[in-house]
Amino acid sequence: xxxxxxxxxxxxxxxxxxxxxxxxxxxxxxxxxxxxxxxxxxxxxxxxxxxxxxxxxxxxxxxxxxxxxxxxxxxxxxxxxxxxxxxxxxxxxxxxxxxxxxxxxxxxxxxxxxxxxxxxxxxxxxxxxxxxxxxxxxxxxxxxxxxxxxxxxxxxxxxxxxxxxxxxxxxxxxxxxxxxxxxxxxxxxxxxxxxxxxxxxxxxxxxxxxxxxxxxxxxxxxxxxxxxxxxxxxxxxxxxxxxxxxxxxxxxxxxxxxxxxxxxxxxxxxxxxxxxxxxxxxxxxxxxxxxxxxxxxxxxxxxxxxxxxxxxxxxxxxxxxxxxxxxxxxxxxxxxxxxxxxxxxxxxxxxxxxxxxxxxxxxxxxxxxxxxxxxxxxxxxxxxxxxxxxxxxxxxxxxx
Length: 400
Fold this sequence. Notes:
By secondary structure, the chain is α+β, with helices and mostly antiparallel strands. The protein is built from 9 helices and 15 strands. The strands form 2 sheets. Strands 1, 5, 6, 7, 8, 9, 13, 14 and 15 form a 9-stranded mixed β-sheet that branches. Strands 3-2-4-12-11-10 form a 6-stranded mixed β-sheet.
């Protein structure tokens, strides 16, 4: 491969320490993110842009696990990928990762528990939720006219005003609401210069060319290539977070590469990536998605939690019968010359139950066709956002 200099890039001490002690958790987080991504695809159009916030869902499922027992807990733990982990090992590792992400200046994780005034939550459940995800418990009369506004205002406030009106209504039987919000904002380590942004073509999944604002720069990035795809990691300011991009060589290979996305595939890309100098083009884009995750979680194996037979006996004091109702998530991710801003809100409503081609003279990574992306914390392995861009929605702004 030409223009490959400097060998493999050095990882930060923080990342090396985490990978050494918690490699299994990092792999589990990547596996969970990919599983959630694949389930989300089943509910979207084949050519839809997709963005999901895996760790936000993980935090909500973790709270459900803390309050469940029996088959319900087993299914939730299996969906989380922690069925072979002891409660103690999972709690310690999850807590360390959660706090590690939340202590950065780029990301903010916020949780809340709202309970009906007459619902008596188990003290241990509340304490563990507060410890594990910095979640605060507050009473809320879900039947009150202002209840919906109270919840939606919280989501809006904790996503920097980006996600509004996540919930449209409360079920009359709502007893508990688990809420989670994630925000991310960071500048690129090497910013794109706005004067380098040009109107260029982007070939969508149907092979049609559309015109978009394409950012460009030449710099050093962690890079790997093989037959059918290219892989690049674009780091943010302090190297703690990175946006990993998997780019099929041709738009016609999009579905094939998507099927190949597995934890082993992505980990191998990371391991084989080397510091190289290349020409990097990336469209300015924004992806937004709002969905009901109830069916997605059912497909992931969380089934009994939605039934009248759900076992959430560790949630309340008096053993009141509860089951999961709606699970909503809204997420967005916006990329421009300066960096990336992203946010997500997740709500879980609980109610009463009844071979490679030869490279060019200079390496090129032109994201001018559909690609996949993963916004990851290098130190903990947590995947905050994952998705694909099929058709950029931010169009012309600069010309040249």
